[in-house]
Design brief:
Helix content: over 70%
Number of helices: 9
Shape: elongated
Strand order of the largest sheet: 2-3-1-4
Largest sheet: 4 strands, antiparallel
Radius of gyration: 30 Å
Strand content: 5-15%
Number of strands: 6
Order of helices and strands: HHEHEHEHEHHHEEH
Distance between the termini: 31 Å
Length: about 300
């Protein structure tokens, strides 16, 4: 146990010595990784919110199916509902009688329509149909219109599908940028560690001559890479912690409407902060392992 502790302290000590001897190079790598991780954090926040917005849109997304005026009997309504439920893309169906339809119209268009309450109600019974795949909502709406007893169906038109496609595109672009930033960060740490190794090649030769194994030689460099990744993640995590809370406060928790409500800071800051820190540690460790393994393999 004592030997393992001494070995860990040795590796940590020489990792800091490596950083100190190549301070400018390491600071350059830390700065570049800080910028990369900051951008990753921003795109992760955007990506998580796009998923959140898409779920909100999908949960509110439904096909409004209006029945013919003469469809008033329970057995007629049940028969149409069963036919709708048999469609492959339909998830659930919610009945809305004509009184409820009038209340919805009053909420949407104003109290002037209150005069139609009671026997003067000209509206028909209806259904709200929720789908499994929102991208097939147009086809599902057209299939429902073919059912006997259905007067019309509407789902918001092309604007809804365009919004869903836009959110999907933003999400894919964001995650693509994150992948590119990951590759860039790994490359930066790889070059930093490789330069450090080349400048300390005499030490490595001496270690080998006195019986040092590859694992013993590699570990201080790997720890150095992990430290670079850790230091590079500190500022992005701090900026996320204070910046997102301020942004949430300024925007009062939403963009444009409740449909685009922001995720509360305590639900997202720690999640993204932990991901960014782990990414910093992993890319630091991986890039260092790659660089030193490649060097030792060549110099075997």
């Amino acid at each position: 146990m004592k030997e393992k502790l001494n070995l860990a302290l040795y590796e940590l000590k020489y990792a800091f010595i490596g950083i100190k001897r190549h301070l400018l190079l390491c600071l350059s790598a830390i700065s570049a990784i800080t910028i990369s991780l900051f951008l990753m954090a921003a795109f992760l926040v955007v990506g998580i919110h796009v998923d959140h917005f898409a779920m909100n849109v999908q949960s509110d997304l439904s096909i409004h199916v209006i029945l013919d005026q003469d469809i008033v009997e329970d057995d007629q309504i049940d028969a149409i509902e069963n036919q709708i439920l048999e469609l492959s893309n339909v998830d659930s169906v919610e009945f809305s009688d004509k009184e409820n339809e009038l209340e919805l119209m009053i909420d949407e268009k104003g109290d002037a329509f209150s005069i139609y309450k009671g026997e003067e109600n000209p509206l028909s019974n209806a259904f709200f149909v929720y789908v499994q795949d929102e991208k097939q909502i147009q086809d599902t709406s057209e299939q429902i219109e073919q059912i006997e007893g259905v007067s019309s169906s509407a789902y918001g038109g092309s604007s809804v599908t365009q919004l869903i496609n836009l959110l999907d595109m933003v999400r894919k672009v964001g995650y693509g940028v994150i992948l590119l930033l990951l590759i860039l960060s790994i490359y930066l740490i790889f070059n930093t560690i490789r330069t450090t190794i080349f400048s300390r090649h005499e030490e490595i030769i001496i270690m080998r001559q006195v019986g040092g194994t590859n694992a013993f030689i590699k570990r201080p460099f790997e720890v150095q890479g992990v430290l670079i990744g850790l230091f590079g993640s500190l500022l992005p995590v701090a900026a996320l912690y204070f910046g997102y809370a301020k942004l949430y406060e300024v925007l009062e928790g939403q963009l444009f409407s409740n449909l685009f409500s922001l995720i509360k800071p305590n639900q997202i800051v720690w999640q993204v902060g932990l991901i960014i820190t782990l990414i910093g540690l992993l890319i630091g460790g991986f890039a260092s392992f790659w660089a030193v393994t490649k060097y030792l393999k060549v110099k075997r």
